[in-house]
Amino acid sequence: MNQLFEELQFFADHTTRLAVIESFAAIILSFILSLLITWVYKLTHKKGQYSQSFIHTIIIMSVVVSVIMIVIGNNIAVAFGLVGAFSIIRFRSAMSDPKDIAFIFFGMATGIACGLGFYILAILFAITLSVLIYILFVVDYGKKDVEEKTLKVTIPENLHYEQLFDELFNKYLKSYTLQQVETTSLGTMYQLTYTITLQEGVTDKEFMDAIREHNANLKVSIIMPSRVY
To answer: Do residues 164 and 128 share a domain?
Structure first.
């Protein structure tokens, strides 16, 4: 009997050691793969400066999710308990770039695969998707062939803006749409906001100089299209 208890104790200790080793491997692997994910994010990020906190968030969430999956295992009761616990969490920060959300899910999916013990799948998934993201970045997939710009023109209130620039716009632009009209300078001026597409060969300076001849040389500005990837 004593020998049986000793064998059971040895088996329990051996199983515990294996579980600890597997858990540690899952945590370390999820951390390493999340470093790869964040490196790809930094490499392909073009919209201004990226946030260091967001980089850390991807890494932390990947590791945390891997631990959660280790804790859950095959225990359905624990899984439902964790769902209830995490349902009270609310994220107040809005994502400025939709691609940021995809990278968060990328890190979480990698953490899930590591936590469930699918180490080879996690490695293949992280490397393959990273390569695909980089390819999309290099070929600039999805870029618009024609870039729309925003034109803001200030005119005196005594000018009728409805057809003021029609002839000029037809000469220099492929397309234009009046988006907004507002008063400025205590109601003595109008500011017109257009979405425009310049014709080929027409420069911003040439177009702005032509407008200034029609708006009493008041303020004219062209806003470049925002780069969202």
So the answer is: no
Strand order, beta sheet including 173-184: 173-184, 189-198, 149-156, 220-223
CA distance 178 to 194: 4
* Average pLDDT, 10 consecutive residues per value, the chain (229 residues): 48 57 87 95 80 89 87 64 54 67 90 89 95 90 75 86 84 88 84 88 87 86 67
Pairwise CA distance, residues 156 & 88, whole Å? 55
| Interhelix angle 52-72/2-44, nearest 10 degrees | 150
Q: Are residues 79 and 180 in the same domain?
A: no
Domain that holds residue 73: 2-139
- Secondary structure of residue 90 in the 3-state scheme: coil
- Residue 228 placed within a domain: no
Give the Cα separation of 190 and 185 in Å (integer).
8
Domains: count for the chain: 2
